[in-house]
Amino acid sequence: LNKPEWYLTQVLMWIGNHAKFLDEKIQPILDKAGSSVNAGLEFSRALVMLILEKLAADIPCLLYDDTLFCHLVDEVLLFERELYSVHGYLSSFPSCMHILSEESCFQRWLTVEKKFALQKMDSMLSSEAAWISQYKDITDVDEMKVPDCAETFMTLLLVITDRYKNLPTAARKLQFLGLQKELVDDFRIRLTQVMKEETRASLGFRYCAILNAVNYIATVLADWADNV
């Protein structure tokens, strides 16, 4: 259960190793018979069906172990990425995202995603470099003087989007968007709390850094507004 990458990698290897044989030996036979079947894609589809069976059996066994469950999700997302980008798998075919979208699994995924995001926010705001810009010494890069915590937070949101963007239904994607909205609100509250501590020094370093953070986040969210 702690090594889903073993069978996921094995399947990718089988697909890659058989591609030439299927393309050069089997596909011409199908073409000659007037079939519209793509040998390579059908081979991939059959192997993915085996993975779906395996996932359906394994997930209930690790649903409440955060570490194992997160590792499984991470490995499945890497597998899906390679399956589509390297092996040309079709989005209309069955995929692992359908298993991750099933109710009990999906709710668990949302829960652990939120848990780890909040932990990340705790660590980024308690860091000594939280209010310092990574690029403070490079003037042409750092016009907005973005503090490290704001940049890290927006990267966190971007990573979450990247993880859920291939979910098969808009309803599931919207649930993840809801989580992102919660995180933005949580971050806003945390900034407000820090700001209240700094009101006596409203021209101080940290107060200005908070204003820069808010400006940066608002600007990036506006840029993302065109991304359906």
From TrEMBL:
Source taxon at top rank: Eukaryota
Record InterPro entries: RINT1_Tip20
PROSITE patterns: RINT1_TIP20
GO-annotated cellular components: Dsl1/NZR complex
Biological process (GO), any one: endoplasmic reticulum to Golgi vesicle-mediated transport
PANTHER family: RAD50-INTERACTING PROTEIN 1, RAD50-INTERACTING PROTEIN 1 RINT-1
Record-given protein name: RINT1 protein
Organism of provenance: Sula dactylatra
Gene name for this UniProt entry: Rint1
